[in-house]
């Protein structure tokens, strides 16, 4: 009976070694690139501030080492005067993070890199944009939260449509 228990324990240990252990940890958050331009200052301050905001958002990820991924959330906010169309300012931030991820593969890893990690980084990018705008002499620009889950789903749907269109032609 003790032999059976030893065999079962050995089989369980072997099974545990085969399955990689799930690990997810944030190693570092940092600004990779930052830019602020107010090309029409100081004349833009003479007008009543009526902002028209154009926001561009992008994410990318790269494997930079064993189980180590760099994720970058790029936020570009271009604000023009609603009446005149004059550019008030352009603020751009590439907020990055290093994540240690293991035990996740395939679609689940792609989802983690494309949606979960950007959700972690976006509040930092949002704060950085707000700080830049304030330092530029403009009222705060409080960006609304972003649903990276929905953006990821849209991106996957577009990729699938393109693949289907390519296979029919």
UniProtKB/TrEMBL annotation:
Residues 1-20 are annotated as: Disordered. It holds the Pfam family SecB. It is found in: Cytoplasm. Its main location: cytoplasm. Residues 1-17 have a biased composition (Low complexity). Coiled coil: none annotated. InterPro entries: SecB, SecB-like_sf. One of the proteins required for the normal export of preproteins out of the cell cytoplasm. It is a molecular chaperone that binds to a subset of precursor proteins, maintaining them in a translocation-competent state. It also specifically binds to its receptor SecA. Belongs to the SecB family. Homotetramer, a dimer of dimers. One homotetramer interacts with 1 SecA dimer. This is Protein-export protein SecB. It comes from Halomonas binhaiensis. The gene is secB.
